User: What shape does this take?
Amino acid sequence: MTSPASTPLTQDQLKALVGQAALQYVLPGEIVGVGTGSTVNHFIDALASMKGQIKGAVSSSVASTARLQALGIAVFDANAVERLAVYIDGADEIDGRGYMVKGGGAALTREKIVAALAERFVCIADASKQVAVLGGFPLPVEVIPMAAQQIARRFAALGGQARLRLKDGQPLVTDNGQHILDVHGLQITEPLAFESEVNQWPGVVTVGVFAHQKASVCLLGTAEGVQTLQF
Ligand code: 5RP
Assistant: This one.
């Protein structure tokens, strides 16, 4: 994709650029792990050009499954797969060590499950997602509904304000039938320890910090083109 020097690429064009660039990590004959979100949607659309060369995909959401299948890409159940060479997904934030915040699209639990099958996590993101410290983006946490308030109090003790995510005025229900808390006001300076700690809290299904499963590579869409960051 090219752009006149005076016309900067839009955020969506940057997402399309990295979605296309991610094809270089898709190995012929393999099953590819596929994330969720607007950046991944560009990747899925690009992946259609390779559908004859791959076995198919393991998907991280109902929405990605529908998009893959509409393009004629076979979707495998995660239980049918022992390992994936690569998992490709977006992020809401990524820091200089490859640690991420994810879950803006409410798919964080299945994203972590599919990422855990993969040898490499390739993050695709526009440059606005790059941060020095995680937490500026409200941290998504998938919770069992009956535990939401006690988990909110635990975040308050850490200085965060947890808000139940709504959709059409009602609590958003995830693909797994659970709720999402979005936690504002955190500064996550120790992502590994933070993820381990929150994982212990009763009622937490998944915390949106991806530190134990950080990115191996990030394809970052910038005004100068796609930068490849290795972690
Ligand atoms: C979905 C996610 C997405 O990867 C994240 O929200 C980024 O989305 P987008 O590509 O639309 O900016 O974690 O749960």
